[in-house]
Design brief:
It is an enzyme of class 2 (transferase). The protein has seven helices and eleven strands. α3 packs across α5 and α5 packs across α6. A seven-stranded mixed sheet has the order 5-4-1-6-10-7-11, sandwiched between helices. The protein is α/β, with parallel strands linked by helices. The structure holds cytidine-5'-monophosphate. Cytidine-5'-monophosphate binds next to β1 and α3.
């Protein structure tokens, strides 16, 4: 059984609102993409590492060339299309494990990644890093507002780790049904495969909005990187 890594980086980052994709914004001396790629150099994996880029992304290809053992695949319209394209390019064994990690999460900790992998290897069940929700969450349906019991709520982070064969089947099925899928776990849940939550650090933030940038810079500094 082998562990592979997919790094979806084919998004345009609409909510970030810059003229270029958010993975190319610079934090100190490096692009966000390089911060994330550098972190993964510290994780021992025996399989392939695949960076998923938009078709026309020459900057990403240039960056990828400076990392050894990093292959490139072309992504799709939505994140789930990109991940499925990455799985097709990976062409792994059914039982292999695939970690999927957002390129826009540079602060993930190596020890959290290793804990997730250990969990999957030990139990044979797929899972994801997640944190318990700390805000009180409201549901608005027209004028009706209700409160959801937050003791049951977790925020989904990445990496997410699933068996190659099951993940490919679950994503293909969700996409062909036209279901909106924003992470791998939701496709796995829909397909009836087990999904476990492994608690991860809260600083594993995704760069989504401009105000996240200063916080990510702070977390990287605090981690001594
Ligand atoms: O847009 P969002 O922040 O949810 O994207 C999460 C990750 O998925 C990012 O790393 C982004 O580059 C990637 N993505 C992708 N292909 C898309 C859309 C998003 O690889 N079509």
């Amino acid at each position: 059984m082998t562990d592979h890594l997919l790094l979806p980086a084919a998004g345009v980052g609409r909510r970030f609102g810059h003229d270029r994709p958010k993975q190319y914004c610079t934090l100190a001396d490096r692009t966000l993409m390089e911060w994330t790629l550098d972190l993964w150099l510290n994780v021992r994996l025996d399989g392939r590492r695949l960076l998923i880029l938009a078709q026309s992304d020459s900057q990403g290809r240039d960056i990828a060339r400076s990392y050894s053992n990093l292959d490139v695949a072309v992504g799709g319209e939505e994140r789930a299309d990109s991940v499925l394209a990455g799985l097709e390019a990976l062409n792994a064994q059914e039982q292999d494990w695939v970690l999927v990690h957002d390129i826009a999460r540079p602060c993930v900790r190596v020890e959290d990644i290793e804990r997730l992998l250990d969990h999957c290897h030990r139990t044979g069940r797929g899972g994801l890093l997640a944190t318990p929700v700390s805000d009180t969450i409201k549901r608005r349906d027209g004028d009706a507002v209700s409160t959801i019991d937050r003791r049951q709520l977790w925020s989904a982070l990445t990496p997410q780790c699933f068996r190659f064969g099951e993940l490919k089947q679950a994503l293909a099925s969700a996409l062909s049904a036209g279901v909106t899928i924003t992470d791998e776990a939701s496709a796995m849940e829909r397909a009836g495969f087990p999904v476990d939550l492994v608690e991860g650090a809260r600083d594993n933030l995704k760069l989504t909005r401009p105000e996240d940038r200063a916080l990510i810079e702070f977390y990287l500094m605090q981690q001594g990187r």
